[in-house]
Amino acid sequence: MALNCGIVGLTNIGKTTIFNCVSKTKAEASNFAFSATKSNIGMADVPDARLYEIDRLIKSARVVPATVDLVDLPGLAKGASHGEGVGNKFLADVQKTSALIHVVRCFDDPELPHVEGSVDPVRDKEIVDLELQVRDLDLVERKIQRYEKLMKVGDKDAKAAVDFLNRLKDRLENFSNARDMEMTEKEEEMYVRDMFLLTIKPVIYVCNVDDASAVTGNAYSERLREAVKNEKTEVIVIAGRLESEIAELDNEDDRQLFLQDAGLEEPGVNRLIRSAYKVLNLQSFFTAGPKEVRAWTIKQGMTAPQAAGVIHSDLERGFIRAEVMTYHDFIQHKTEHAVKEAGKFRLEGKNYIVQEGDILHVRFNV
Predict the structure, then answer these.
(1) What b/e sequence results for 85-108 when a residue is b if at least 16 CB atoms lie within 10 Å of its CB, and e otherwise?
(2) Helix axes 240-247, 268-279, angle to 10 degrees
(3) pLDDT score for 86
(4) Distances in Å between the alpha carbon of 246 and those of 18, 163, 215, 254?
(5) Band of the pLDDT at 91, cuts 50, 70, 90?
(6) What is the pTM assigned to this prediction?
(7) C-alpha of 326 from chain center
């Protein structure tokens, strides 16, 4: 299971630079507005030091981290919901993503003109929000019309749907996002999920700052942080240009020296990927053996057979049991045998809910 995060924002704010910091696939960045007419697709490894701690004890042939799929969407322009720039294509691509990484420009650069004439991250955020809200409003209004027709023919459930959708419409008309509206799981499933709303997707804000602001941020990033303080979100500060230079270094020691010189303990993009994991309610479990140590991505709350199915469908179909030890127990006791001797090794059945950091060995028969 791969993450699917869309990187959104206005044109000329550093989206593609951030994408190139994270992704194994590089895209061309440009100083010209609307130079990109299609989305860039990339994949990045999810940073997880636990994999290498496990490998240090097992000494496998290879280490395989979990991955994140990224979509660098073309820069948005005011009026995208009405087809401006690459508006319709952009919004269709947003609809396919699971979460949004919203990049805002928080740096001055006279050689890179801002499409709106000045640097203002709060205004830029509101422009993008408005375009997504307008698109969602159209979808909601169409659905209201369908339910109103059902009301006229006596559908007893249609009135509840219309009442709910009108509340949602009112929020969108007042420049609020669907994700900020209180709704039950049943309401979301019955009335919202099939619309694939853009503003219901979880969002992480990335403040793209200048090199000098890489550690503490700046006045621009503080303004954005203040503006979204009541949203259920995270704000991450990344110096895109600096981190793109670090990402281009082949030697890990050189990268660490570069980070230390910048006052950073790790690349900001590592924090970004972990935040994406969190916002999508994902977690990792591990498999470990002589051939490989691997991290697997699952939704929180998945059972052992469902987790086994992420490895291979045959493992879910023929699931018998899972042999389980926690990462911490394995690191503490250093071998599987020692974990068993300590009474920390467990056999779990089909109802077991896999926990973050579990090390699994699946027994199955097909």
Answers:
(1) bbbebbbebbbebbbbbbbbbbbe
(2) 100
(3) 46
(4) 12, 52, 15, 8
(5) confident
(6) 0.85
(7) 26
